Amino acid sequence: MRIVADENIPLLEAFCGDVGALTRVNGRSLIRDQLRDADVLLVRSVTRVDAALLAGTNVRFVGTATIGTDHVDTQWLARQGITFSSAPGCNASSVVQYVLSVLSVYLVRQQRPGFDGLSVGVIGAGNVGGALVQRLLALGVNVRVSDPPRQQQGADLPFASLDDVLQCDVVSLHTPLTTAGPHATAHLLDAALLSRLGAGQLLINSGRGPVIDNRALLERMREPEAPLVALDVWENEPEPLPELVDSCWLATPHIAGCSLEGKCRGTEMIARALHQWAGADMPARLASVLPPPLLSELHFTDQVEPMDALHRALMACYDPRDDDSRLRGALARADAAGNPRGAAFDEQRKRYPVRREPSSLAVRVPPGSDTAKGLSKCGFEVIEASKA
Predict the structure, then answer these.
(1) Which CATH fold topology does 297-387 show?
(2) Is 243 a catalytic residue?
(3) Is 254 a catalytic residue?
(4) In whole angstroms, what separates CA 263 from the centre of its chain?
């Protein structure tokens, strides 16, 4: 069996090497000729999978190591009898980590003492948005959720109107990208809705780029009393509007879900589906193939304030300002050399540094310390020092 896979899907050799011969390819430039003899195709969101790519090939199984599936024509695959698998929820904790780190930097910027009293509007409460809502509620955040389909299904969440959500201190987007139906999300935030956001507010998009009308957002950011904006996803990736990148408070290259754990969970999920399809047992498990983290432990004394400890722990795992700096530097160098910006954007993802989630980090605190509460609610392993 021949498996063709995106070169940036990690640990495939460990998870799928027993199933067939593995050929790595550039997912963005993949063409049909590279799939003539393939039985299996494993992709990420940069590859459009449809009849134009697969018609006339021997591919009978397609897996995407991503939550989203809007890059895959699943209906065409079904009509052709091609088995399809995705990885729903695989990087939810990674995206939650991204948002919490952005929020922590925002709180420091706004000189707010902590998460208490902060209001966050979450648009889209599926695997990722739902996990974020639970983390925020545990931290004492005033959360409002806009997700009409889930509300109609009777989900137990703090639902509010979209108007109310847009009045929150922070608005975070986590919807899938849909272009039809009563709750289509393409350009959900258009010029009219963006005009309701003002100075002091923060808009975060780590879901799908086209959920925001990027040109309308750029115009809004050029007007007085504009909000702060942190974008991880963009229209026209990998070539977002240069002026929009320049105008954002934080600009990152579609990496919110790119923790090592998040990426490897996606690999594990599609590998398991592939093994089931092939009628084989999968011997490898995620815990057995993850390398040890570079930083495994922090130790806080009784002099640290709880919010300072939480901020420092979050930044020790992931500081979004690092990704912002790397992206801006890469794009500037590409411009200076006359090279394509898209290649520079993609290179940031291809060579993304290893990032670990809070669960990989043990944090030691004094016994009985209030510091432990926020840390544990953000997913860190908390150890009281006297019990070590």
Answers:
(1) Ribosomal Protein S8; Chain: A, domain 1 (3.30.1370)
(2) no
(3) yes
(4) 10
Task: Establish whether 301 is an annotated binding residue.
Answer: no
Distance CA 32, CA 287 (A): 35
Q: How far apart are CA 113 and CA 342, in angstroms?
A: 39
Fold exhibited by the domain 92-251: Rossmann fold (3.40.50)
Using CA atoms, how far apart are residues 74 and 387, in angstroms rounded to an integer?
52
Rounded CA-CA distance 88/91 in Å is: 8
Given a contact cutoff of 8 angstroms between Cβ atoms, the answer to whether 54 and 47 are in contact is no
**Domain 2-90+259-289 indexed as CATH 3.10.129.10:** no
For residues 236 and 215, give the distance between their C-alpha atoms in angstroms, rounded to a whole number.
11
The answer to whether 187 is a known catalytic residue is no
Q: Which of the following is catalytic: 144, 174, 208, 349?
A: 208
Q: Catalytic one among 237, 261, 268, 357?
A: 237
Block means of pLDDT (10 residues each) for the chain, 388 residues, are: 95 92 95 95 96 97 93 97 96 97 97 94 96 97 97 96 98 95 96 97 97 98 97 97 98 96 94 96 84 94 93 98 98 97 95 95 90 93 75
* CA distance linking residue 215 with residue 138, whole number of Å: 36
Task: Say how many CA atoms lie within 13 Å of 274 toward its Cβ.
Answer: 34
Full-model pTM: 0.88
257 marked as binding residue: yes
The pLDDT of residue 287 is 80
